[in-house]
User: Which sequence fits this backbone?
């Protein structure tokens, strides 16, 4: 049992440096005429950030939208401590 307090939504928003709620785009690997969006969300049940993907659509991403960095995707998907992990 851990004595560490649970993170709140406000804690997560501050900790994420504004990533929660931000939307990125990702081009399709097989046909670059298509793209999808990936929103950084917060899963309160799992107590961690998650990526929420749209379906692929034909067209160009909106002006000003940044591409999803593969390192960011990897870190969101794999490198988060969720507070429920036990180390003993």
Assistant:
């Amino acid at each position: 049992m851990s004595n560490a307090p649970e993170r709140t939504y406000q804690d997560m928003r501050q900790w994420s440096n504004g990533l929660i709620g931000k939307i990125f785009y990702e081009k399709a690997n097989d046909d670059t005429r298509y793209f999808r969006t990936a929103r950084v969300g917060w899963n309160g049940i799992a107590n961690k950030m998650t990526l929420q993907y749209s379906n692929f659509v034909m067209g160009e991403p909106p002006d000003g939208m940044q591409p999803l960095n593969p390192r960011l995707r990897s870190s969101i998907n794999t490198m988060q401590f969720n507070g429920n992990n036990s180390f003993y």
In short: The chain has a mean pLDDT of 82. Residues 4 and 25 are 35 Å apart (CA to CA). The longest strand covers residues 34-43.
